[in-house]
Design brief:
Layout lengths: L5 E4 L2 E7 L9 E9 L2 E9 L12 H4 L1 H5 L9 E3 L8 E3 L2 H18 L4 E5 L11 H10 L3 E3 L5 H10 L16 E5 L3 H4 L1 H12 L3 E5 L5 H4 L3 E3 L6 H15 L4 H7 E2 L1 H8 L4 H8 L3 H13 L3 E5 L9 H15 L8 E3 L7 E2 L1 H5 L11 E3 L3 H7 L6 E5 L3 H4 L3 H8 L5 E6 L11 E4 L8 E3 L6 E5 L12 H12 L10 H6 L2 E3 L7 H7 L1 E3 L21 E2 L3 H5 L19 H6 L2 E4 L15 H7 L3 E4 L1 H6 L7 E6 L2 E9 L7 E4 L35 E6 L9
Parallel strand pairs: 7-17, 8-16, 9-10, 9-13, 10-11, 12-24, 13-14, 17-18, 18-19, 25-29, 26-28
Antiparallel strand pairs: 1-2, 2-3, 3-4, 5-6, 5-19, 15-22, 20-21, 21-23, 25-30, 26-29, 27-28, 27-30
Helix pairs in contact: 3-19, 4-19, 5-14, 9-12, 9-13, 9-14, 12-13, 16-18
This protein binds iron/sulfur cluster (SF4).
């Protein structure tokens, strides 16, 4: 059915769209399109005022989406490498030639072992059509290696699965009614703007806001209280809060009795974490832990907005498990405005089978490559990785231990294809770059991990240059490989129409969603998912004790697991590298997206390192000086910002910069490592010890 945009004026139309980015808010957007001769030109982008979570407001980044779409540096034709890998030197080639060359190389490699071909993708778009539908069909038919997509959230997702039964939690819209909100590892001002606006509403009605974050983020600056534990110690903090709740009897015994499993085992564990012990682990005052527990029990309902930063450390999974036990202990789930939200993804019933067609694998069970250790895999995987197809991701900039990643991508015998909008750090290593459409140029449908609405994305303009959507590129690749299954003929509309099994309790009607732009899942307005238990765990209860973890040989009860790198785990390393580095998102970037949008990069200025005044003084570092952050894995340079926003012992490099857009061609991932989290095999970016020194240029006077 043709698009039926809303008529706004004779020459203008408003098209309903969805923000595609890796952000819990999944905004509904309205794109104003003007007809200019034969072209449709997008002239304005705004939040849909009628979509309750969006409320007419887009963040600073996506407000600049037109600058990104019409950027002079867009890749508009297929490109073939002519220079050395990494140099970013290409010539334009036709689609026909590019697809022919890719088909020939993939067929040759697949004849030896299709597992030597590896897809690499993440959340460059969160769309169910342009994300993993046609792409997965292609790789399933091929029998390529599977990719374990762990780089962001897998520790937390697994923790929720073992504790609550899935990625479920509070409704964003209910935070406005909370009496107290704890932002735990969550910089909502930057990464969850529309929840922050609910928190502001709650604050105006007298709610108390607390931030738990090693960094005094923009969110922490606007909370009533800020508690700054050392990175990777959140699990101990949660056990300390539990200790006080249990010691004082601040427990909803009725809720625990009816709806939870394993209270005695959890209590025994928590009683080992008295506030004094926890204070020494976390580097916070014991009194803060006592007060936090007191307020957690007495102020009702309390909501916890947990975010993924705190699970990017060795014990990240157990930390999320510990925190996810708190609302059940205190009974906060009883009210819609109480409980916890890390992700609402599993509220949506996505039809993964219809989208990705795992049946195309037949009896084959290919190996799995963990994306968080791609540097290691490119060097050591057997059979070796001979071809990488990268889409919706920029691993050379975002994957940990960047030097090893770049070394792998530079391998002469590796065949690399990158689907992209721009020549990113990763595209520079490609043998072939295929020009992909942006969100304004293709069709898609989205779920959200931060609210309860399905959001449609109607194409607003024609594809720029020779760009094709991801789905169309994989359709054509399938043809180049000689695949004839009907699923490779499906249109984007047909894929979107089968994306969901249902819409909450109601049927899913794609046509209705695309016309309206969005649709709330059919769940109660005052959605309180666990008010009467109903946890989708095997026991139907909130599992403080997990028999599934026990069967896997893992600790069945949440425990504090110390960071890989820290004074207790690696004392010798901690002497040489005494500072903990974290690299959370910069306000104007979204992972590595938007770094090449001039206005946004200008707003960030240059890479900065926040360092506490005492840590700076001990190293004779002055504000604004060029410093080098280093450890045994590598180094990178940035400018020091001496500020107590960074707590003592912690340095903060807001990220993720494109390496090629920094002065030294490096970013924070030069020093991060590829060790995996306790649950979910996730990346542990924020479990990283470093040292910092001033860069003294020969002959230059110190500032
Ligand atoms: S990045 Fe997030 S806040 Fe910004 S427009 Fe997209 S969904 Fe909305």
């Amino acid at each position: 059915m043709p698009l039926e945009p809303r008529a706004d004026a004779a020459q203008r139309q408003i098209v309903q769209a969805a923000c595609p980015h890796d952000c819990p808010d999944t905004c509904a957007m309205q794109v104003t399109v003007e007809r200019q001769g034969a072209r449709r030109v997008a002239v304005r982008i705004a939040g849909d005022p009628d979509h309750p979570p969006t409320g007419g407001v887009l963040c600073t980044k996506v407000s600049r989406y037109l600058e990104r779409t019409y950027h002079a540096d867009r890749v508009l034709t297929p490109l073939r490498r002519v220079g050395k890998k990494g140099a970013g030197e290409f010539e334009a080639v036709s689609w026909e030639l590019a697809l022919e060359e890719i088909g020939a190389r993939l067929r040759e490699i697949a004849a030896r072992d299709p597992q030597s071909i590896v897809p690499y993708s993440y959340a460059g778009t969160m769309g169910l059509v342009q994300g993993e539908a046609m792409a997965q069909r292609f790789f399933n038919k091929l029998g390529a290696s599977r990719l374990d997509r762990t780089i962001c959230s897998s520790a937390g997702a697994e923790a929720l699965r073992f504790t609550l039964g899935g990625r479920l939690g509070m409704d964003l819209e209910q935070f406005a009614n909370s009496r107290q909100i704890i932002f735990w590892g969550a910089n909502a001002v930057v990464s969850n703007l529309h929840l922050w606006s609910r928190a502001q509403q709650a604050k105006r009605h007298g709610a108390r806001l607390i931030a738990i974050d090693p960094y005094r983020s923009l969110t922490a600056q606007h909370c009533h209280e800020h508690i700054a534990p050392l990175p990777g110690t959140d699990g101990a903090l949660a056990l300390g809060i539990m200790h006080v709740l249990i010691r004082e009897g601040w427990l909803d015994r009725d809720y625990i009795e009816r709806y939870t499993l394993g209270f005695d085992a959890l209590a025994e564990r928590a009683l080992r974490y008295d506030p004094q012990r926890v204070a020494s682990i976390c580097g916070v005052a014991a009194g803060s832990i006592e007060r936090l527990a007191h307020d957690y029990w007495h102020v009702r309902p309390t909501a916890i907005r947990l975010n993924y930063g705190m699970q990017r450390a060795h014990g990240g999974g157990n930390a999320v498990r510990a925190i996810a036990c708190l609302p059940a202990l205190a009974g906060h789930w009883r009210e819609a405005a109480g409980g916890l939200l890390l992700s609402s993804s599993d509220a949506f019933e996505v039809d993964q089978h219809a989208l990705t067609r795992p049946d195309l694998l037949g009896a084959r069970t290919p190996r799995t490559i963990n994306m968080s250790a791609i540097g290691e895999a490119l060097g050591a995987a057997r059979p070796p990785i001979e071809a990488l197809i990268v889409y919706n991701s920029n691993p050379v900039a975002v994957a940990p231990q960047a030097a090893q990643v770049a070394q792998g991508f530079a391998r002469k015998d590796l065949f690399t294809v990158v689907l992209e909008h721009f020549l990113t750090d990763t595209a520079d290593y490609a043998d072939l770059v295929l020009p992909a459409t942006t969100q304004l140029e293709h069709l898609d449908v989205h779920k959200s991990y931060g609210h309860l609405y399905i959001v449609a994305n109607n194409p607003a303009i024609e594809p720029q240059g020779q760009c094709l959507s991801n789905s169309e590129i994989f359709r054509r690749l399938a043809r180049a490989m000689g695949y004839t299954e009907e699923c490779f003929q499906e249109t984007d509309e047909q894929i979107a129409a089968k994306a969901f099994v249902r819409c909450g309790a109601s049927p899913y009607d794609w046509e209705a969603v695309r016309r309206a732009g969005w649709q709330r899942l059919d769940v109660p307005q005052a959605y309180a998912p666990f008010a009467q238990g109903n946890f989708p765990t095997p026991s139907g209860r909130c599992e403080f004790f997990s028999a599934r973890l026990a069967q896997m040989g893992l600790d069945p009860v949440p425990e504090f697991i110390a960071p890989y790198e820290g004074p207790t785990s690696t004392p010798e390393l901690a002497q040489r590298y005494p500072l903990a580095l974290i690299s959370p998102p910069a306000r104007n970037f979204l992972n590595s997206t938007f770094v090449n949008v001039q206005s946004l990069r200008a707003a960030e200025g240059e890479p900065w390192l926040d360092i506490h005044p005492q840590d700076a003084a001990e190293r004779a570092i002055g504000h604004g000086e060029l410093v080098e952050v280093f450890n045994d894995r590598g180094s990178f340079r940035l400018r020091a910002r001496v500020s107590d926003a960074a707590r003592r012992g912690v340095v903060v490099a807001l990220s993720i910069w494109w390496k090629k857009l920094t002065a030294d061609g490096k970013n924070a991932n030069e020093v991060t490592h590829q060790h995996l989290t306790d649950l979910g095999g996730g990346a542990s970016f924020y479990d990283c010890l470093v040292q910092v020194r001033v860069v003294v240029r020969p002959g230059a006077a110190r500032v």
